Amino acid sequence: RILESVMILVGVGCSVVAIAVTEMVLFRRPTKRLSTADLELAGVEGVSAETKVLSGIERTLIKDAFLDGPDFKWMAGGPAASEDVHRRVTGYLVECFLRHGEQYGNVLTVRDRDNALLGALCLVPPYESLWLQKAHFLRSVVSLGIPEPARIGKDVNARVDAFLDGTEAVVHELMHNRPFWYVVSLAVVSNAQGKGVGKRLMEAALKIAGAAPLYLECHDGNVVFYERCGLQRERHYPLVSKGPDVESNELPYNAMVRWGD
Q1: 122 phi and psi, to 5 degrees?
Q2: Handedness of CA 229, 111, 107, 238 (dihedral sign)
Q3: Are residues 260 and 210 in contact, defined by beta-carbon separation less than 8 angstroms?
Q4: Is the distance from CB of 255 to CB of 174 less than 8 angstroms?
Q5: Which residues pair with 214 in a beta bridge?
Q6: Apex 69 CA angle, 213 and 113, nearest 5
Q7: Distance CA 147, CA 160 (A)
Q8: What is the secondary structure of 71-130 as a DSSP string?
Q9: How far is CA 201 from the centre of its chain?
């Protein structure tokens, strides 16, 4: 029995070491977190690089900014979706984007004189492997537990899967073996929209990317804005929800790229 106990302890110890090594090697940040000083060196003005996690109130403001987007309405079930479901789906997905940016990328913000948040952009640095990028995304959201769409029902879950799988497939098609900067999300709070906050954040992201490609996805209503920021539409494609006992639905979506030098 003593030998068995020792073997169990050795096994547990090896598992702990393996987990620790995995965390250090596989799940370490790909690059150092940007500072506001780094932005200033890149010629960026009026934009800050967050070094701390955004507050709960700020996260709510960002989530609310996405509620009017046709993509989030579609994922929540379309026009027939209840406000509760719409908020739950949008809140869950935006929380995933924020956690990805905070843990493995950078969160750029614009604030007013009173330090109130006006807008935020999550920018993930280039990866040598898209599979590692996905592993880091999953690692950053695993603590959220069972995905909220899976709790709601098959139709919503199928739509969210279509969004995640469809955008991932196009990223792999367009950016395979080409490291790029990834704008995971861009939000401007409701009382600051139409005042150039989004443009300022995009200009900052483009300066940070430098000569490297910059990539993002958007719905049709945002294509013109990103084209004015210097990106071009490389793919217009449908996101299609499908599965057992699920009504097929489509959402047109877009891959936007600034290729760089």
Answers
A1: -95, 120
A2: negative
A3: yes
A4: yes
A5: 181, 258
A6: 75
A7: 10
A8: HHHHHTTGGG--HHHHHHHHHHHHHHHHHHHHHHSEEEEEE-TT--EEEEEEEEPP-S-H
A9: 15
147 with 212: CB under 8 angstroms? no
Q: How many angstroms separate the CA atoms of 23 and 17, rounded?
A: 10
Cβ atoms 198, 148 nearer than 8 A: no
- As a 3-state breakdown, the chain gives helix, strand, coil percent values, each rounded to 5, of 55, 20, 30
Other CB atoms closer than 10 Å to residue 200's CB: what's the count? 20
SS3 187: strand
The pLDDT of residue 107 is 97
Cβ burial of 118 (10 Å; 0-12, 13-18, 19+) is buried
Cα separation, 186 vs 118, whole angstroms:
11
pLDDT at 206 over 90: yes
Q: Tokens 């956690």 — which residue?
A: 99
The tokens describing 156, both together, are 């919503």
* Residue with the larger pLDDT of the pair 16 and 164: 164
d(CA 66, CA 185) in angstroms, rounded, equals 10
Q: How far is CA 256 from CA 50, 76, 98, 183, in A?
A: 25, 24, 20, 10
Q: Distance (Å, rounded) from C-alpha 43 to C-alpha 40?
A: 5
pLDDT in tens, 131-144: 999 999 999 999 99
Count of Cβ atoms closer than 10 Å to residue 5 Cβ: 9
Residue position matching structure tokens 């932005």: 39
Q: Which two tokens stand for residue 214?
A: 């910059």
pLDDT over 90 at 113, yes or no:
yes
